[in-house]
């Protein structure tokens, strides 16, 4: 599988140069003077955790996101003003995720829509189908009926249709954003083969994937983004996995160190009162069968990069998604969770990593958001009286440093940090025995982070079994008594936290390439 | 908070007042209410009585729309309810007795509730889009009503039943009192229990509500059931008005008027926050408009056009974008003299 063109030795002239790209949303700088250079015949990987600015940078390149400062050169000529049509005219094409295609349109229509072949009497469908077939043939698929509706195809073929849609324009630059996220291993390998073939044809490829191994397999260079800045650029052949991961997740922040030592001294002595036990729980295409015990009074961290299965495990354990294998045991007896409502009745509360879509109900007030879960638990016929509401809200008002004036404002108007606190208050109001928090500190400032972390530590002290998930491994290490490490939709190990365990320990486990678990299970 | 509510209802209320003023200009005694035989008479009382069926339908529609749904079948349910009750009374041995009438009402309301439950089942359990799910009953319902009346327009004489649509109690039309009572009941049901909040929560963000443990299925099912029940009650009032079961024309296009009333009242078709008092104002605007057309002497044939114009005006005035444009204009105008001065 060695590249015939040996692109690393003699870098060709760049097709695209992005210099000092800065993007702001509502005054918030989401991309800060980022640089990116794409060369023909190279696969360039864009790395970074959620919110690092990858999508924004891609948006700036393809013209969907307006830039505040910086310039984009194509063949040394400035690309202005930006716009989707302009980028496309310059030969920059994007492979959408298959979810962005139209399921009810045919394969040919999905490939050709937006750039149909037109004649005197409108669209010439015969020619369209010819071109679609040719594009699919370049990708090595010839057995797909162009008239089948897209929804009838397998995820892998759909993704290949998305690629065909991009290459039918014969682009010089191809952007692939998470092209393998819905594919299984064999299908992903097929797609990576296509990527290599296009690279060898001289296309400059920008590749984004959360799957580390795929990135290492297919890319020539990589650019690492964190918090909207480019923090490193590497030749793939020369970079250590551990170095890459630590660049992606960032260094420790001194202000948070204090809590660490506090947690270490608290470190749970190991009662065996298991609150929630998952045995071989899993779901096809989502998570390999996994065993996890959640113990009362213990914080368990789920560590891993995004897409590693950490969120999926949390959702399977809390009934948000139905597991198709394995069992859940609550306080020693088997339970079937038919959904989040059932989980809440069993005193299992869960938050989603997606605060905006699955957390806050933006149009309801802060007060309503806080009492929502408790009210749902009681049923609509037994409303919380105003006094009861006040009591619930007041309990968390001080603890979460919310102000009284905020209570009657729509929750959507609040800052991300305050919304996270409101979410936490909503969950705590149900007095959970098991609390599963997915990214409760994402996108919020240090002070709010500290608040939430202290709160989590306190809850564990009160006997709640807590799951803490965060992209920031330093947080996980600081808070957790035990750390479950996941990679590529599989649990690869479990660590008992202690003075010897650092971010590096986990990074090394994740980075250990296909050698199996780097550390044995704790028990 | 209260000020915002007032603000949201400002334009609809202004439109209603404008309509009333226009009518008074055209016919100075328009707002006059006289007492005749111990009953109140006059155009305002007519408006209140005529508004009753639409009010009932629109109440259910408000709740359905708040959950991001829509119920197109209300007109068909009106027809079925009317047909059922009148056919039952017509075939009973004693059409004039109170017990017969009560039984007829119970049967009609029971069936309407079942029809609402059926809609709710299709939407919340089977997962059919509300517009399609209720379209089924909208089309089939007229056929069912036809079947009940056997294609005839059944005319009935029954004094107790007639009271529902044309009677008076304490000087006020019975229909108005019924609709008012249901309005209060729904207001209490949604604002004194947690139903209102959960309905809004499901309408604003179904995914987040599910994770918070809200049983969206039950909520959606409940609002469709209520919509069916209220439509049935509206059907009874309409049938009692004319004392004839017309399967084809009873409640024809009432779904459109109800949706209009809800939208005029400020409840978004995208679901979420709803306003029952807004719907009330919307219903009064539409009913007044219908009466205006008669009073002014415009042919009833062009009533829809007239309605459309008013609706366009009110919805435009409520649209945030239009308001912003107006506000920006006003600011510009205010800013200009200063520029000159400087």
Short summary:
Chain A has 523 residues and is an alpha/beta fold. Chain A is 35% helix and 24% strand. Chain A has helices at 54-62, 84-89, 107-112, 125-138, 155-167, 185-200, 212-218, 241-249, 257-266, 310-317, 340-345, 355-358, 366-378, 386-399, 416-429, 446-461, 473-479, 503-511, and strands spanning 16-25, 28-38, 43-47, 69-74, 77-78, 92-95, 118-119, 122-123, 173-177, 204-208, 221-226, 229-235, 274-283, 287-295, 299-303, 325-330, 333-335, 348-350, 434-438, 465-469, 482-487, 490-496.
Tell me what the structure shows:
The complex is a heterodimer of chains A (523) and B (342). Chain A has 523 residues and is an alpha/beta fold. Chain A folds into four domains: 1-91 and 171-250, Rossmann fold; 101-164, no CATH class; 252-347 and 432-523, Rossmann fold, CATH 3.40.50; 355-431, no CATH class. In chain A, 35% of the residues lie in helices and 24% in strands. Chain B has a single domain (2-335), classed as Orthogonal Bundle (ABC transporter involved in vitamin B12 uptake, BtuC), CATH 1.10.3470. A two-stranded antiparallel ribbon of chain B has the order 1-2. In chain B, a hairpin with a 2-residue loop joins β4 (168-169) and β5. In chain B, α1 runs antiparallel to α13 (303-318) and α4 packs antiparallel against α10 (216-242). The chains are: A alpha/beta (523), B mainly alpha (342). Chains A and B meet through α11 and α13 of A and α8 and α9 of B. Chain A: Keywords: ATP-binding, Nucleotide-binding, Repeat, Transport. Chain A: This is Monosaccharide ABC transporter ATP-binding protein (CUT2 family). Chain A: GO terms for molecular function: ATP binding.
Number of helices of chain B: 14
Name the CATH superfamily classification of the largest domain in chain A: P-loop containing nucleotide triphosphate hydrolases
Reported for the largest beta sheet of chain B, the result is: 2 strands, antiparallel
| Largest sheet composition of chain A | 6 strands, mixed
Instruction: Report the principal-axis shape of chain A.
Output: globular
Organism (chain B): Isoptericola halotolerans
Membrane topology (chain B): Multi-pass membrane protein
Keywords (chain B): Cell membrane, Membrane, Transmembrane, Transmembrane helix
Pfam families (chain B): BPD_transp_2 (PF02653)
């Amino acid at each position: 599988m060695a590249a015939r063109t040996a692109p690393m030795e003699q870098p060709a002239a760049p097709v695209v140069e992005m210099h000092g790209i800065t993007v702001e949303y509502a005054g918030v700088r989401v991309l800060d003077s980022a640089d990116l250079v794409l060369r023909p015949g190279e696969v360039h990987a864009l790395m970074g955790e959620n919110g690092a600015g990858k999508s924004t940078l891609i948006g700036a390149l393809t013209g969907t996101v307006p830039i505040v400062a910086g310039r984009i050169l194509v063949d040394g000529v400035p690309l202005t003003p930006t716009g989707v049509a302009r980028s496309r005219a310059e030969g920059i094409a994007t492979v959408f995720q298959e979810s962005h295609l139209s399921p009810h349109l045919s394969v040919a229509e999905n490939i050709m829509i937006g750039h149909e072949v037109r004649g005197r009497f409108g669209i010439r469908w015969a020619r369209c189908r010819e071109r679609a077939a040719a594009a699919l043939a370049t990708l090595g698929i010839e057995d797909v009926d162009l008239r089948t509706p897209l929804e009838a195809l397998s995820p892998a073929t759909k993704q290949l249709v998305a690629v065909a849609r991009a290459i039918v324009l014969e682009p010089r630059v191809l952007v692939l954003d998470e092209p393998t996220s819905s594919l299984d291993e064999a299908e992903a390998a097929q797609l990576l083969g296509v990527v290599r073939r296009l690279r060898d044809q001289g296309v400059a490829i920008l590749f984004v994937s959360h799957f580390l191994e795929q990135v290492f397999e297919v890319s020539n260079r990589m650019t690492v983004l964190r918090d909207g800045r480019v923090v490193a650029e590497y030749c793939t052949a020369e970079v250590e996995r551990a170095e890459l991961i630590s660049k992606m997740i960032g260094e420790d922040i001194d202000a948070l160190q204090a809590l660490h030592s506090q947690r270490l001294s608290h470190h749970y002595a190991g009662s065996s009162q298991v609150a929630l036990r998952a045995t071989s729980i899993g779901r096809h295409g989502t998570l390999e069968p996994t065993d996890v015990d959640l113990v009362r009074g213990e914080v368990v961290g789920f560590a891993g990069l995004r897409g590693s299965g950490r969120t999926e495990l949390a959702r399977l354990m809390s009934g948000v998604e139905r597991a198709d294998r394995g069992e859940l045991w609550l306080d020693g007896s088997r339970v079937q969770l038919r959904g989040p409502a059932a989980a809440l009745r069993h005193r299992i509360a869960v938050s989603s990593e997606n605060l905006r879509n699955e957390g806050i109900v933006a149009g309801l007030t802060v007060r309503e958001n806080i009492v929502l879960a408790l009210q749902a638990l009681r049923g609509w016929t037994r409303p919380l009286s105003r006094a009861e509401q006040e009591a619930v809200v007041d309990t968390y008002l001080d603890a979460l440093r919310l102000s009284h004036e905020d209570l009657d404002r729509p929750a959507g108007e609040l800052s991300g940090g305050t919304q996270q606190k409101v979410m936490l208050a909503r969950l705590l109001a149900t007095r959970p025995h098991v609390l599963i928090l997915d990214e409760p500190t994402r996108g919020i400032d240090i002070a709010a982070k500290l608040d939430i972390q202290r709160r989590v530590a306190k809850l564990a002290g009160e006997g709640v079994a807590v799951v803490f998930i965060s992209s920031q491994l330093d947080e996980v290490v600081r808070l957790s008594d035990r750390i479950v490490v996941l990679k590529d939709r599989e649990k690869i190990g479990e660590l008992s936290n202690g003075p010897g365990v650092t971010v590096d320990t986990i990074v090394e486990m994740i980075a250990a390439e296909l050698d199996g678990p780097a550390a044995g299970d704790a028990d | 908070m209260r000020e915002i509510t007032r603000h949201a209802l400002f334009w609809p209320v202004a439109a209603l007042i404008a309509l009333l003023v226009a009518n008074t200009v055209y016919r100075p005694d328009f707002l006059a209410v006289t007492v005749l035989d111990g009953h109140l008479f006059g155009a305002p009382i007519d408006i209140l009585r005529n508004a009753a069926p639409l009010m009932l339908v629109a109440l259910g529609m408000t709740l359905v729309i708040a959950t991001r749904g829509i119920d197109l079948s209300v007109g068909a349910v009106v027809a079925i309810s009317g047909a059922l009750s009148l056919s039952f009374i017509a075939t009973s041995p004693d059409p004039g007795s109170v017990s017969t009438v009560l039984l007829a009402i119970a049967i009609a309301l029971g069936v309407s509730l079942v029809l609402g439950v059926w809609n709710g089942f299709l939407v919340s359990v089977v997962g059919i889009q509300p517009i399609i799910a209720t379209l089924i009953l909208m089309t089939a319902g007229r056929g069912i009503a036809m079947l009940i009346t056997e294609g005839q327009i059944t005319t009935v004489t029954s004094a107790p039943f007639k009271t529902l649509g044309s009677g008076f109690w304490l000087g006020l039309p019975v229909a108005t009192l019924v609709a008012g009572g249901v309005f209060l009941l729904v207001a209490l049901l949604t604002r004194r229990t947690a139903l209102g909040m959960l309905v809004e929560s499901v309408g604003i963000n179904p995914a987040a509500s599910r994770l918070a443990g809200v049983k969206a299925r039950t909520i959606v099912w409940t609002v469709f059931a209520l919509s069916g029940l209220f439509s049935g009650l509206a059907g009874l009032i309409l049938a009692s008005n004319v004392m004839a079961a017309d399967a084809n024309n009873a409640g024809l296009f009432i779904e459109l008027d109800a949706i209009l009333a809800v939208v005029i009242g400020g409840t978004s078709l995208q679901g979420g926050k709803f306003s029952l008092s807004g719907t009330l104002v919307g219903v009064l605007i539409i009913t007044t408009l219908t009466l205006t057309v008669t009073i002014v002497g415009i042919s009833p044939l062009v009533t829809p056009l007239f309605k459309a114009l008013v609706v366009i005006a009110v919805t435009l005035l409520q649209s945030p974008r239009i308001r912003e444009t107006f506000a920006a204009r006003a600011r510009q105008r205010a800013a200009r003299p200063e520029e000159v001065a400087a």
